[in-house]
Structures
1.
Amino acid sequence: MVLSRRWAVFLTGVGVWTWLIWPRFGLAIWQDDRSFADGRPTSFLLVHAVLIGASLAVGTTVGVLGMRAWRYHRRRRVAEDLVAAGPSGPQD
């Protein structure tokens, strides 16, 4: 399956967005008064930690797929330019 260049950019953006948003949310959860009771983590913290970890894993996967598709389109464009230039190379 080949993704379009637009989808590649979108998926890469989603991956970047995920890594911008979820760590900040994790810090907010960590600092929340409900995260610890008697010095021990509560279920509130643990549930959110699992959600944040899963979101980062999905975001990373989506971002990697987007980057791979983006690189594919870039390599394809370079190859097409070389073919269009002919056997003697680019003419300046």
Note: The mean pLDDT is 92.
2.
Amino acid sequence: MTAHPPTSPATAPLPAGFRAHAGAAGLREEGDDVVVVLADGPAVASSAVFTRSLFAGPSVVLSRENAAAGRARGIVVVAKNANVATGEQGMANAREVLDRAAAAVGAEPAELLLASTGVIGRQYPMDLLRTHLDGLAEAEFDADALALAAAMMTTDTHPKTAAVEVPTTDGGTARVVGIAKGVGMIEPDMATMIAVVLTDAAVGSDELDAAFRGAVDETFNCLSVDTDTSTSDTAVALASGAAGPVEPAVLREALESVCLDLTRQLARDGEGATKLLTVEVTGGRDRDQAKRVAKAILNSPLVKTAVHGADPNWGRVAMAIGKCHEDTDIDPERVRIVFGDLETYPAFPGEAELARLTEIMRAENVTIAVDLGVADGACTVYGCDLTREYIAINADYTT
């Protein structure tokens, strides 16, 4: 028995064994901007993966240390301020955030992870954060996944949640619920954006870590909006164990299902995006080659702008494949390029086919499939079109 399809409901209760707070510290003009998620008890398994950016912020540095034991109880998320490139003071501020949050909720600082998102190069507004964090002991911890996802947003246009149910081995039901934010500065070297996945399945830390890392590799690692890697990328999975054990294969499928749902939502909401672009590459020497070629296509500004304008210039995909010049085993005579269900190479479409290609590219979801004809390596990646709005958003991001 497998997981039910993921859903993005109007409300999304957290799995059993978790409670959460979303509140307004004043970092943004209006709306919540601080999130705290906490497991009720200490019997927690966790997994976390982070950016490989050389400019990783203090939140990533501290969270790497605290995540190493695989027993994190919760996470604090601060929106609208990345606290990156802030020197020793930035690190001291990040430690203080964890210290104050832990004291307020009855946890140890080492049991909590920290994630931050927003403008780089600015110190935390510590007076605002101190006041808010010190009040957590009396604050409501009744936020659902939708409220948490909304509080994490920066340039997202809407909150992203996904949930599935899975059977436990003793006849019950466990849940996997995910939240995510991040629609720009996305080209991961490991994970991407901020994502928090919670489950009440009973699972060991090593088993959860293997399943979550595998899910991340197939989903968040296959997402790109603009080829830029964030300094703050964090993806976390926490398991409370409150619902009982789940078969490992079922849990892995559920984690991947939720992460894929979030990945597609993030790609579709890419800054200024009007379309979800999916690139499927098969026939590679191995998965690495297939992924490399798929990313070359997905990240090409010429491909992305053609998709945006529904320009039937399929040759731009051939160009993008050709950029992978170190992959000398790719022979153009064996390559096949398909948009939707229309082959463009080596079919060499005429005027009627190009008109149909234009219609295919006008859809909100555009899929480009490429068969390299080398072996059986395959990878699917997710992104979006490139629009004038993307330029407008990022030209005025801090003003």
Note: The first helix runs from residue 58 to 67.
